[in-house]
Amino acid sequence: MSDTNQRIADIVGGKDVVLFMKGTPLFPQCGFSSRAVAILDHCGVAYDSVDVLQDMEVRQGIKAYSDWPTIPQLYVKGEFVGGSDIMMEMFEAGELQQMMDAKAVAKAEG
Ligand SMILES: N[C@@H](CCC(=O)N[C@@H](CS)C(=O)NCC(=O)O)C(=O)O
User: Does the first or last residue of the chain, that is N or C, have fewer Cβ atoms within 10 Å of its Cβ?
Assistant: First the structure.
């Protein structure tokens, strides 16, 4: 496993919910990432984010890791869920919230 792949595996395996995105939740740098953040905020779950614009190896490596060509990418309890389109479809169907509940993901504070 390459260093980058190992780094990504550690991030994905070490956090309940992690969003690989462009920018930060406060300052998303892409409409798709902004949408992904809004969906997670609506779900009310605690999550971590990784700004791929800060690390080109992670930006490319995450696509190979999931075999998914775009960012954002959502992982829950180590599992790849999808990008913002899939998140939106699941959210609208109530499936994202169900998945978070089923996986006992922590709620956001406040
Ligand atoms: N339909 C995609 C849209 C995401 C997308 O097209 N992302 C582009 C622009 S932000 C991307 O990641 N391009 C590759 C790159 O920038 O490295 C989704 O569901 O998230």
Answer: C
20 Cβ contact list (under 8 Å, min separation 6)? 49, 50, 52, 58, 62, 71, 72, 73, 74, 75
Q: Return the closest-CA partner of residue 39 out of 82, 102, 103.
A: 82
81 lines ligand 1 (CB under 6 A): no
62 lines ligand 1 (CB under 6 A): no
pLDDT confidence band for 59 (50 / 70 / 90):
very high
pLDDT at 94: 98
Residue 97 CA, ligand 1 centroid: distance in Å: 23
What is the interface pTM, i.e. ipTM, of the complex?
0.98
